[in-house]
Amino acid sequence: MKRILALLLLSTAAAYAQAPAAKTSLEIKYVRDSAEYAALSREVYRIATDAALAKGKAAKGAWGVILDVDETVLDNSTYQLERVTYTVPFEDVSWLAWINRAEAGSVPGVADFLTAIRAAGGKVAFITNRDEKAREGTQRNLERNGLWSSNDVLCLLADNYPKSARRKEVADGSGKCSWSGVKVGVVAFVGDQMGDFPQTGEPFDGAGADAQFGRSFFLLPNPMYGGWVTSVTRK
Ligand SMILES: [Mg+2]
Questions:
Q1: Quick check: is 159 in a domain?
Q2: How far is the CA of 10 from the centre of ligand 1 (A)?
Q3: What's the domain count of the chain?
Q4: Does residue 222 form part of some domain?
Q5: What is the pLDDT of residue 18?
Q6: CATH number at residue 127
Q7: Is residue 214 part of a domain?
Q8: Alpha carbon of 114 to ligand 1 centroid (Å)
Q9: If phi over 0 gives left and psi between -120 and 50 gives alpha, with beta otherwise, what is residue 126?
Q10: pLDDT mean across residues, the chain
Q11: Neighbouring C-beta atoms of residue 110, cutoff 10 Å
Q12: Domain of 57?
């Protein structure tokens, strides 16, 4: 009997030894649970609101703002948490299923920002690398969160259609990502990745310049994913 008990204990210990070490995933907890993340996001949006409204008032013609979607407008930390719980990586099928659930929350501060921009007569363009297949689910999620207005433009990724090309269309008033025929002075860009902002050579004031952050470029924190995970992006 003693021998059986000892064997049982040994096999249980072995099973625990083989179990993967618990992953802490503090980057997801920071986004979901910390007062600091929420205050930081609201702070960025508050600064963006003041800057955009001042520039919008001074604008001669139509004006507006360009926002990324993921981790800028919609909070996908629940999806991230699910992947970590199951110890499975990001992949496209589950990502599209998540989009179609339309359960993403709002990034703190974005609702007030959009309300202020629209009330002042500004236009809102969402430029995202979500796939064209995700259009209905994305718009439904934005609507569910009270973040969508019928005059907005939602520009998704199609046929290697880079964000730089879509930004230019907004400004030029031509192409799918525009208010056809209406040139729009873009007074603010909001995103969580460097690719969400005009790069050197693009036709926007201060394109590629660090000095634009806090003035017309507004960067939100994203500790969960990004180009920095697999390379050094800091110069
Ligand atoms: Mg994003």
A1: yes
A2: 48
A3: 1
A4: yes
A5: 56
A6: 3.40.50.1000
A7: yes
A8: 17
A9: beta
A10: 93
A11: 23
A12: 48-229
Distance (Å) from CA 71 to ligand 1 centroid: 5
190 Cα: distance to centroid of ligand 1 (angstroms): 9
Whole-number Å distance, alpha carbon 15 to ligand 1 midpoint, is 40
How far, in Å, is the centroid of ligand 1 from the Cα of 154? 14
pLDDT digits (tens, 9 = 90+) for 104-155: 999 999 999 999 999 999 999 999 999 999 999 999 999 999 999 999 999 9
29 CA from centroid of ligand 1 (Å):
18
Dump the DSSP string for 170-201.
Answer: HHHT-SSSSBTTB--EEEEEEESSGGGSPPTT
Cα(88)–Cα(126) distance, integer angstroms = 29
Residue 153 lies in a domain: yes
What's the pTM value of the predicted model, to 2 decimals?
A: 0.90
Please give all residues whose CB falls under 5 A of ion ligand 1, grouped by chain where several chains appear: 68, 70-71, 192
- Distance from residue 46's CA to the centre of ligand 1 (Å): 19
Rounded Cα distance, 142 and 105, in Å:
9
Q: pLDDT tens digits for 52-72?
A: 999 999 999 999 999 999 999
